[in-house]
Amino acid sequence: MFRSAHIDTFARDRLPPPERWPQFIFELPELQFAEQLNCAVELLDRPIEAGRGGRVCLRAPGQPVWTYADLQQRVNRIAGVLVNRMGLVPGSRVLLRSPNKPLLVACWFAVVKAGGIAVGSMPLLRSKELVQIIDKAQIGLALCDTALTDELESAAAAARAPLRWLDFDSLQAAMATESDRFDAVATAADDVALFGFTSGTTGQPKATMHLHRDVMAACVCFPPHVLRATADDIFIGSPPLGFTFGLGGLTLFPMHIGASTVLIEKPSPAVLVDAIEAFAATVLFTAPTSYRAMAAAARERRISKPLGGSLRKCVSAGEALPAATRSLWREATGIELIDGIGATEMLHIFIAADEAGSRAGATGKVVPGYRACIMDETGQPVPPGVVGRLAVQGPTGCRYLDDPRQAEYVKDGWNYTGDAYRMDADGYFHYEARTDDMIVSAGYNIAPPEVEEAVLAHPTVADCAVVGVDDVQRGQIVKAFVVLREGSTGDEGLTAAIQDFVKARIVPYKYPRAIEFVTDLPRTATGKLQRFVLRDRSPPKSA
Ligand code: 3UK
């Protein structure tokens, strides 16, 4: 075995015990990795050695483009700052705090090239949440966008151990005096390269650990087998690079094939629409809610072919994709969405369908390199057509940092994502709900996404969230929170109309007995609906 390069063995010492690991499978020929591997070298230095340093790598509004060679030069200088001035040793954790921008990508690669562990974070996090991350991952170093230093400053003051950090202005000043050469640390393929904190809704945050090898594995499964982008593609999208959906879709995947990517600091739907046009972007990564809003933004502007011009591939992940959203996007752009389910624990997407293979109502088939199975409560596979728990295995999998919840995610070598799914006879996986979001009303099991899907098909509805609220008679009742399109008024007449509309589309007992009209829905920074917020907002209904 190639020896770990980590001098600071914090991560290695806190891997789950071997009996709690998922089964890893490396059957594809492209998943045979050398024992010595640094993913920053593979994704950045190799293509430059091969003569592709002059190709454009990173683009951002109002900024000059960075070629691969430009990026490498910055990466080397930042690595110099980290090692020579901040005391990074291989295995050190470095917190990265910034909106999506080229310098953030340079920081990520610098940490990883120097053998450190990159810990991404969402720009929206407040000091209390940052403290949790800093303490959990025992982080001693941070690089922070100058606009986001306030929360970090108070987090550093509250953290258990001292934190050394530089804001981006000081970093750039320090870079100027460092060499533009840096020898990469020869990490082992199974050294930890990054921590991904989960967007968990309750309790202490969990840190997932991913190895250098995992980063490369993610690049050779979903991208070449389902996405099939090329070196001439221009990637764009909304997920923060602190979320592995964004890290893969907006950095690792384009760089693995020598393509370029557009980074946008505040990617609201309207800003995204403009940027797609301005940069003639071709591959888009975002969440279902953003596709709905972008389709609406395009329609309001009465641009007939607003996005379809340059755009050719659109990936939806993070939440279930309702059939109504798929067709809304097809009508707005002529493009069939690529739906894919991924998870922070799995690093990226493991079930998906390309444009030709898509089926309304199904997420897709298992991505080459992975296996998936639907299990009953006791961990036995159920036959096609039966709803159960989704379990997956592949080259990536769950390794929580020092966390007893490892035993909940990984059982008998399978990763349990917490989703209720059903597989059909053709091997397509159909999403039902998060297992803990299932509504039980008068003895019936009701999956919120199926009801949301029906409500969303109503012409007045822009967005919708369905939860179970306590009810004395029925245990729970189905309640829909509805955001209307411009020009509609939420009154009793419309409530009844939506209820009748739903009853005509799905089994009537699933219709929302309560509807509340709202102006927006609570979502995480990654576009996920926060159903628990809506549940807490609804007092129990008395008989
Ligand atoms: C849900 C989906 C239905 C599902 C993620 C792509 O979302 C990502 O990671 P998270 O850890 O959440 C994982 C959970 O989100 N989900 C994600 N995609 C879909 N449900 N259809 C989908 N297409 O409950 C899953 O267990 O935040 C997504 C790539 C990387 C990621 N980290």
Which helices and strands occur, and which strands form pairs?
Layout: H1 10-13, H2 39-52, E1 56-59, E2 66-67, H3 68-85, E3 93-97, H4 102-113, E4 117-120, H5 127-136, E5 141-144, H6 149-158, E6 164-167, H7 168-175, E7 192-197, E8 207-211, H8 212-220, H9 222-227, E9 234-237, H10 244-256, E10 260-262, H11 269-279, E11 283-286, H12 288-300, E12 313-316, H13 323-333, E13 338-342, E14 349-352, E15 365-366, E16 371-375, E17 388-393, H14 406-409, E18 410-411, E19 414-423, E20 429-434, E21 439-441, E22 444-446, H15 448-456, E23 461-471, E24 475-484, H16 492-505, E25 514-517, H17 531-537
Parallel strand pairs: 1-10, 3-4, 3-5, 4-7, 5-6, 9-10, 9-11, 11-12, 12-13, 24-25
Antiparallel strand pairs: 1-2, 7-8, 13-14, 14-15, 16-17, 17-19, 18-19, 19-20, 21-22, 23-24
Helix pairs in contact: 2-3, 2-4, 3-4, 3-7, 5-6, 11-12, 12-13
This protein binds 5'-O-[(S)-[(2-aminobenzoyl)oxy](hydroxy)phosphoryl]adenosine (3UK).
